[in-house]
Amino acid sequence: MTIEFTQSVDDVMRHWPATIRVFLNHGMRCVGCPIACFHTVDEACHEHRVDHETFLADLRAAAFEGSQDLG
After folding, report:
1. Residue 60 domain-assigned (yes or no)
2. Vertex 24: Cα angle to 21 and 30 (nearest 5)
3. How far apart are alpha carbons 4 and 70 in whole angstroms?
């Protein structure tokens, strides 16, 4: 499964915990936010004025690296 713009922020962080650092590194304080289960990745990027393509690439890289750590 690949991370997409249409997924909720909460789903991304739950399925790929390594992505939490990406949110924080981009200045997005989505961890623990009550809106995270309603906002998509796309909406969060728009809200926080983060470049969509760069952010998605960073999320995918973190998810891939995190899955490699699991063996």
Report:
1. yes
2. 105
3. 22
